Amino acid sequence: MERETLLEELAQLEANFCSALSDPTRLLLLYALHESPRTVTELCAELRLPQPKVSRHLKILRERGLVQPVRQGTSVIYRLVDSRLIQALNLLRAVMRERIAHQASMIHSISPSIEESV
Q: Do 65 and 81 meet the contact criterion of CB atoms below 8 Å apart?
């Protein structure tokens, strides 16, 4: 019973972590911070997003431990905590690309027979 509880807790931790990756804005922020650390103002300008939206998403990423704020004088600069996260996202993109290619080939293979029946 204890092992099952630990597995459930681990699954919940993973789900919470992955929920930070479930928003397109947060993914864009992670890729931007992978290029170089930036302030909220710089991120807003680069992504053309309002400051409250960027700050809200950075808060979620910070709470999940994916980004870290570093104070430099009066500025706060955000940085990606671990670049392996981008490697994982790129791996997911590769899997997604293969799935899309597979689906496209399936559609292409049946499309002549659909066109003939119309």
A: yes
